[in-house]
Amino acid sequence: MTDAEFLAFNEAWMSAVLPCLCDGGVCGTFIDWRGLPTVHSASSKLGLVPLNLIVWVKTNGGMGSLYRSQHELLPLFKKGTAAHVNNVELGKRVAGARTSGLIPAPRRSARMPAEDLKTTRPSSQPLCSRTRS
């Protein structure tokens, strides 16, 4: 892709994600160092706020002959001005997912009725707007 095509591609997928994010929702994309400025440019055009840049260190370097990247970059962006939404906790509450033990599994309480443990969303409303207290 040309630079212009790559910018249009990033603007297109981010535009498609925006309606699915509530105010405070977080999204990101894996990218290498070359594409990072383009991703930031696309997110800025759409009004997303940069939150952080996560670096995932992999066990093996990628393909190539001179330098082999042994990491992936994950820029994170937030929609709107509300506090960040913990999508991991919301997903576990809805799906009733089990965890590896590193993150405690959710406990049922008055804040988490049995109907919130269904595996499918009963409405087209964004998940965070239904379950936020």
Determine the CATH superfamily of the largest domain: Vaccinia Virus protein VP39
Q: Major sheet: size, sense and barrel closure?
A: 3 strands, antiparallel
The level 1 CATH classification of the largest domain is Alpha Beta
Q: What global shape is seen?
A: globular
Number of strands: 3
Percentage of residues assigned to helices: 25-40%
Give the topology.
Blueprint: H1 3-17, E1 26-28, H2 36-45, E2 49-57, E3 71-78, H3 87-95, H4 127-131
Antiparallel strand pairs: 1-3, 2-3
Helix pairs in contact: 1-2
Q: What key phrases describe this protein's structure?
A:
3-stranded antiparallel beta sheet, 15% strand, 4 helices, single chain, 3 strands, alpha+beta, 133 residues, globular, 2 domains, Rossmann fold, 29% helix
What does this structure look like?
With 133 residues, this protein is of the alpha+beta class. The protein folds into 2 domains: 3-78, Vaccinia Virus protein VP39 (Rossmann fold), CATH 3.40.50; 87-131, no CATH class. The chain has 4 helices and 3 strands; from the N terminus they run αβαββαα. It starts with a helix and ends with a helix. The model is unreliable at 97-106 and 112-123 (pLDDT under 50).
How would you concisely characterize the structure shown here?
The chain is an alpha+beta fold and 133 residues long. The chain has helices spanning 3-17, 36-45, 87-95, 127-131; strands at 26-28, 49-57, 71-78.
